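Example (one chain per record):
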Amino acid sequence: MYTIAICDDEQKEVDKIVILLKKYIENNKLECNIKTFLSAKKLYCCINTGYIPDILFLDVYMEQENGLEVAKKLRQIGFENNIVFITTSKDHALEAYGVNAIQYLVKPLKEQQLFSIIKKLTEEYQKETEQYIILRVEGMLERIAICNIIYCESQKNYQCIHLIDGSNKKIRITMTALYECMQKWTEFIKLGSSYIVNLYHIKNFNSKKLTFINGKDFYLPRGAYAKLKEAYFEYYCN
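Predicted structure:
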């Protein structure tokens, strides 16, 4: 599922982009969710509650706040996903690339130009999501490489993600919600109610504990051995 956001203070311009996007989505049979925002303030509020669009179409000339400033603020809070500027002038093209914008489109938008960008970004997104998970860590959006996660454990109102280098990340989310984000990767298994383990990083294990490839020991929750054994052999034998 791709998520696309459009932020433009002119409703008619938003409607035009939505029509083009829906045409591309239908023609290419993609699963996409489109959200529209008529002000930067509404966009900020939504992102601050955890909404992270894969692609953001952002108008440069808005009455309340310049789109370039909006992009700078988003980058400062850790928003790393694709930003495509849309505007009536090429005057700020150089500044746009200063905030790592992927493209700068001049209105009126041309169908083929927009389609070309969406095709490129959705293909990149597919590769990207196979390797990273994006989570809010201490108020900042952070991209964490799946291959670096050894295991996760529940710590009261937080989940602690332990990484291969010995560091950890604490996030305010339920264990159930975290596992829902991670279970599309076959290397992760939930053990008991408090742990998620990365099968790829297991060096060896027995009925009481397992040892990760970095030498760290992990003691198994009661009754977890049979489930771990089955998942481990399924992961490496299939």
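Caption: The mean pLDDT is 87.
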